Amino acid sequence: MALLFAICVTSAVPDASAQGSEGLTGVYSNKSGTLAIVEGSNETLVHFAGSFPQGSSAGTCDCALVVQKKTATNWSLHQAGEEDAWTLRVNPKQFVLESGPSPSCCGAGYSGKDTFARSTSKPLSICKVKVSKAVFHASDAANTPRKAFVVSGDAVEAYVDPVEPDFLAARFQGPQKATAGLLKREDLDCAAEGAPTAAKAPVAADKLQPFAGTWVELTRQGKGFVVLKPCSAATRSFTVKPATGEVEVQLGQEATTMKVTSVEAGKGAGAWVLGLTAADGKPEALQWKTADAAKGTVTVSSPDLFSQSHDYVRQEKKSAFPSKQETGCDEFER
Length: 334
What we know:
Elements: E1 26-30, E2 33-39, E3 44-54, E4 57-70, E5 74-78, E6 86-90, E7 94-98, E8 113-117, E9 125-129, E10 133-137, E11 145-151, E12 155-159, E13 167-173, E14 178-184, E15 188-189, H1 205-208, E16 213-217, E17 219-221, E18 224-229, E19 237-241, E20 246-250, E21 255-265, E22 271-277, E23 283-292, E24 297-301, E25 311-314, E26 323-325
Parallel strand pairs: 18-26
Antiparallel strand pairs: 1-2, 2-3, 3-4, 4-5, 5-6, 6-7, 7-8, 9-12, 9-15, 10-11, 12-13, 13-14, 16-19, 16-25, 17-18, 19-20, 20-21, 21-22, 22-23, 23-24, 24-25
């Protein structure tokens, strides 16, 4: 039996009935973000990440929240170091997340409200403890160590944030109760997923041929676009390879490769949805829309890889757009 020393919680512990008979732990998604819920007998952690229109570009939210009060239909949450409260309304078919007046974890212009269908629920990742002792930490500004811990070989459920933070929201299910808190990412091996599933095969080459090639990011400037060269990174781009069924994504300072495991028609002419799958099995839906076929431009979006960059042009047609070096690069020169 795994060893787990539980904390004595001095604050009121939420009634288990408020969590529902099966609990709400899991990851929920909409077209622009994710909502992760990690429930424990001692506390419940919530992580919200998403993007939203911000003028001609996109703003983002990346919010780590802790539930303060919980009923069957209404949760009150807050983030460390902030006074403004968030609210999560638990409806039979959806969650409605609402922020305070000006959440610091979101960019300017956030509407303050996001909705997630409960039908989109997916399980948390299964991680194994790879150190002799992994201590749970509090969700305060200092990430204060607690008395609770898990040991080498224990399996925990965790929300593995794509940005790979130092701590992961995790829970350990003991014989009688579940302990939730933050565990150090470096103490966990999260390569294994919950239940073994058959690896998805990439789509046939002929289905990917219309998307084939390298696409270079366009940056809006005034009423048009430019190909911007950042000071200390490569211009974002992605390459669709029908022969291998892969998409290589250049994110500026790093790159990643995804398999294209589905291609479906979207809403409207020139709209498609490409199902991408990472090496660890994590799925991501890429919304694709032809903006100007003659100029070779498209608009794309997805919850993670393309949450901040949306406009692209075929590499062979990028000369139609002016190229511009980002200003203020002197500090990067040696």
